[in-house]
Amino acid sequence: MSSRKQRERQMLESIYSMIALVFILVTCIELCDAATVVDVYRLIQYDISGAQFGSRFATLNHHAGSLHLPPGVDLSRTVVIIPVRELNITLVKEFIAQRKPLGGLLFLLPQMLNFENRDPTSESKYQIHEKKLTKNVLVELERLLIYANIPYPVYFAFENDDIDAVLADVKRNDASGQPATATTGSYKLVVSAPEPKRIASPAITNIQGWLPGLKADGDPNQLPTIAIVASYDTFGTAPALSVGSDSNGSGIVALLEIARLFSLLYSNPKTRGRYNLLFGLTSGGPYNYNGTHKWLRSFDQRLRESIDYAICLNSIGSWDNKLWIHVSKPPENALIKQIFEGFSTVAEELGIEVSLKHKKINISNPRVAWEHEQFSKLRVTAATLTGLSAPPELLERTGGLSDSRHFVNEDAIVRSIKLVAENIARHVYDYQGKNIQIFADDTSLAVNAPYIRSWLDLLSQTPRVAPFLSKNDPFVMALKKELEDHTHEVNVQHEVLDGMFTIYDSTKAKLNIYQVASVTFDLLLLLVLGSYLIILFTFLVITTRGLDDLISLFRRPPSRKVKAA
To answer: This protein's superkingdom (predicted)?
Structure first.
């Protein structure tokens, strides 16, 4: 009796083992083989006064496709992979403008734009004309995506050997004329991400520092003030990649270096000027310079009236040989005329061309194209120095994908700093019209190129979209500390971004790429596996219990009526 129970136990264990084997094999077939995992960056999702823009979804679970598919193919369950090098902007416009059903879009960016893995050799692979072409393509792509309402996930990733190999396989499969489906097999792209949520009460932070001037003995009057201002945050199609090396990394670097230079002069009473210098690093620049607006509103009337003029620095790192001074007051205004003449004189000595551009402002219109316009609305004389000849549209040229370290000219920033610093110094020390270089090369007051390079490198690796920067963000604290090293009475102002702008989270994720077999292959494999298990089960029953027991398993049991009889 005990030997019979032992045989039954062995048979049950064998059956359980086979069931477990079947479950494992079926699970493996269903989950597929993981080909690679890559970091992906989601297209921004935001609202302006309730109007929706950007990608409205984050989760992705569809087959991969390429641009090599024939027209008319159903792509509603396909993620189209598009390398920026091969970008057909007309086709992308059709996808978006005609709202064609897509499973998603994945744009592959050149590796040279990857600030997280900077390879010095990657830049050498690109000629100057290739860089310009890449930048122009990215500018056009960003302009298209940033104003669109896209009802499917859109992601960006960087090219690498793994994803290039996947794309090559996808292209070969698409060349047959059939999109990847469950019946044909290929690759599956999966992003498991939570539903994007609105960022409540997004914070913006302004930082200011002073270099107080020296009053003459017995002078009861308040010293005049010159303000040097730069906005430090960014906005772009992919918030996690919006580093803004030029806009406005170049302006931040210039402000910090100008603060350092004048701190050397103002640390000595003999060379301290009769002007206060106010340095402001403002947030909310892409959002109508909302941080600048709140910063200026915090000034008391006496301080505001003491400002002689303000110079706002914006995108001064990618110009060739010409800079623009944008103003709101008419060129005939005496102070505007004085400011422009001062810049023109120094620019001529440095071999730089500067031009003045006047644009009237509408005080009742919340749209602000330049930072100086926030000063002008409060009747404070101000100007913006920039390499841009015309004001950008809302949320354009604010540090997106096309604004990386590779497109910034360090020499342009150095020359811009010399221009601003010399002009302010001549105004402060009343050296107007005199050919005197205060910040001459090879002196203790020379512009520090390594200092500029180190800060530009840091800024070019730091995404700075305002709602994603907390009040105590390490980058904000680094700016505060740097300003404290060169100025006095450093003050940090925390505000909330105005409600017309709503930003959503979920900006970065992991993309799992699985290589999948076709359903036909899966069914064939399961058929072979099932046949094998049936044979194995039959063999185990016969060897443990005998042929009669095997036959009894399939014999119909007698009915209750027969038993009763």
So the answer is: Eukaryota
